[in-house]
């Protein structure tokens, strides 16, 4: 290779490295600015949020299937890899075409600023971190590329400057994150929250409410194991001090509550199994908890609901909107503003400090996390987030059942095998669960003792398993005598249906 060839190549490498360092510094400083203004609007977060809202359904489903609860981490990693590639290209281009490269760096920051403005709860100030990032990226890149290479002492200095700026990038990013933690200390707020004693505690668990069968889902789902489904790329940070709930719209009088007002109201407790509409047949997007909170119906009665209002729209601090039938909230079921689950304040990812819970309805039409606003409206006047994306306006939970043990494709020994799982039909309750082997006759299973109709029930059937490959199938009957729907349906647009079927090998 000729001498010019080598130096051109090393110039491009230096340009790419400079682009990466300038981008890192820009993102780090942006974190710091986001922390200083106390808004969760760092460039990667707003770009990621905008991407989530525009992701087509097939891609969202693919991501959840492939990455499950890691889908957000994968998206963020993808954004950082993309930014890194773009930054390297921009830096390399800048070594040859200075102006075009610098314009490219500025453009990346402007795209993030535009994304910040499209976020649902955006304020004008939210563009500041991305604009600062654009400035830092341009200035950093220009600075790093200033000295021409060639002289050995200069190039040594260039390496040093690059290293210092790279370190500054990491330091500012870390400092920005700590500043955000310090400004809204959710952990401290959670720790300081003393849970009130309920005036109406949860129903006592009768004997036999939990079957002691190995491999069955535990009756209560530990908060840390509870499925998480939301569009929040970074968990919204809200303390009890910052929290406020406004009840307005089609009401006689508006009500605004702070957290103290909430705690001062009568507190109730109720065990509820919550379910996501995206749960596939046999899936695990559901969980059971003991919920503690404030009854919603008396609060709405105080506000005076206009009889013409049929939709209650909850809005979260990050702008999610969820619409619930007013009739469901007012019909006597345990619809509540929950503040605790299983005896602990809500975890930040499950909506701390306050979320809605309405038994019998899928989460996307009932369970607003980080709830800050309740508006009485009409179904024909407002479409919430998921409805705008084609999901049904109203979605009661379908009767369903799941085999927890044996696992699909498991190998088991011939002889006595406990086939067991859970079944749910919130609001209607479960009256029977049946199992069949290889399409034979349906066998009644033994059920755990019912606690309330909003909870799943565990079931078990003792199988005398003969050798060979066998298909096990399950179906439930709800409290009204209706058999679980046999026809297979995908979750979209109102929840999956169909009897789960698994194959096991007995050998
Ligand atoms: N703010 C907010 N609340 C939300 C959502 C969301 O994306 N943002 N997702 C809903 C959906 S689809 C479900 S199934 C439940 C899940 O609650 P969990 O994550 O605590 O299990 O929250 C609901 N509340
Ligand atoms: Mo959901």
From TrEMBL:
The keyword Ribonucleoprotein does not apply. It comes from the Bacteria. It comes from Kineosporia mesophila. The keyword Transmembrane helix applies. InterPro entries: Ig_E-set, OxRdtase_Mopterin-bd_dom, OxRdtase_Mopterin-bd_sf. Keywords: Membrane, Transmembrane, Transmembrane helix. It holds the Pfam family Big_7. This is Sulfite oxidase. Residues 233-380 form the Oxidoreductase molybdopterin-binding domain. SUPFAM superfamilies: E set domains (SSF81296), Oxidoreductase molybdopterin-binding domain (SSF56524).
């Amino acid at each position: 290779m000729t001498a010019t060839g080598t130096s051109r190549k090393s110039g491009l490498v230096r340009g790419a490295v400079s682009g990466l360092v300038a981008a890192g510094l820009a993102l780090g400083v942006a974190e710091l600015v986001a922390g200083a203004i106390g808004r969760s609007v760092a460039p990667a977060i707003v770009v990621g949020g905008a991407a989530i809202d525009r992701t087509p359904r097939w891609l969202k489903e693919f991501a959840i299937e492939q990455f499950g609860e890691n889908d957000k981490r994968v998206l963020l990693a993808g954004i950082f890899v993309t930014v890194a590639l773009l930054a390297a290209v921009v830096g390399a281009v800048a070594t040859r075409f200075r102006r075009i490269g610098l314009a490219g760096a500025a453009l990346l920051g402007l795209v993030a600023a535009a994304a910040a403005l499209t976020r649902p709860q955006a304020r004008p100030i939210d563009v500041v971190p991305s604009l600062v990032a654009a400035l830092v990226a341009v200035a950093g890149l220009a600075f790093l590329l200033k000295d021409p290479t060639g002289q050995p002492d200069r190039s040594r200095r260039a390496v040093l400057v690059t290293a210092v700026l790279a370190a500054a990038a990491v330091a500012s990013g870390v400092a920005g994150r700590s500043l955000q933690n310090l400004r809204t200390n959710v952990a401290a707020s959670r720790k300081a929250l003393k849970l009130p004693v309920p005036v109406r505690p949860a129903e006592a668990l009768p004997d036999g409410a939990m079957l002691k069968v190995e491999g069955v889902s535990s009756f209560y789902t530990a908060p840390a194991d509870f499925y998480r489904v939301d569009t929040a790329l970074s968990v919204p940070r809200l303390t009890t001090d910052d929290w406020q709930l406004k009840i307005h719209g089609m009401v006689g009088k508006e009500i605004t509550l702070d957290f103290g007002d909430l705690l001062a109201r009568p507190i109730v407790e109720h065990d509820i199994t919550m379910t996501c509409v995206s749960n596939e047949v046999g899936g695990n997007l559901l969980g059971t908890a003991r919920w503690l909170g404030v009854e919603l119906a008396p609060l709405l009665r105080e506000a005076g609901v206009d009889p013409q209002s049929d939709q209650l729209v909850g809005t979260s601090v990050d702008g999610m909107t969820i619409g619930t039938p007013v009739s469901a909230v007012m019909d006597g079921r345990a619809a509540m503003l929950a503040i605790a689950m299983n005896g602990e304040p809500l975890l930040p990812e499950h909506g701390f400090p306050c979320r809605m819970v309405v038994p019998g309805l899928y989460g996307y039409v009932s369970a607003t996390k980080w709830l800050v606003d309740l508006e009485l409206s009409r179904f024909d006047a407002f479409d919430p987030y998921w409805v705008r994306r084609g999901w049904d306006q109203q979605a009661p939970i379908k009767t369903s059942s799941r085999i927890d043990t044996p696992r699909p494709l498991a190998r088991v020994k011939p002889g006595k095998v406990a086939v067991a799982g859970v079944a749910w039909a919130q609001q209607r309750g479960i009256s029977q669960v049946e199992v069949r082997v290889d399409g034979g006759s349906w066998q009644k299973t033994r059920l755990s003792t019912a606690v309330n109709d909003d909870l799943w029930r565990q079931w078990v059937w003792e199988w005398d398993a003969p050798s060979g490959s066998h298909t096990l199938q399950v179906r439930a009957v709800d409290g009204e005598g209706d058999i679980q729907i046999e026809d297979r349906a995908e979750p979209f647009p109102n929840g999956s249906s169909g009897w789960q079927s698994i194959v096991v090998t007995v050998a």
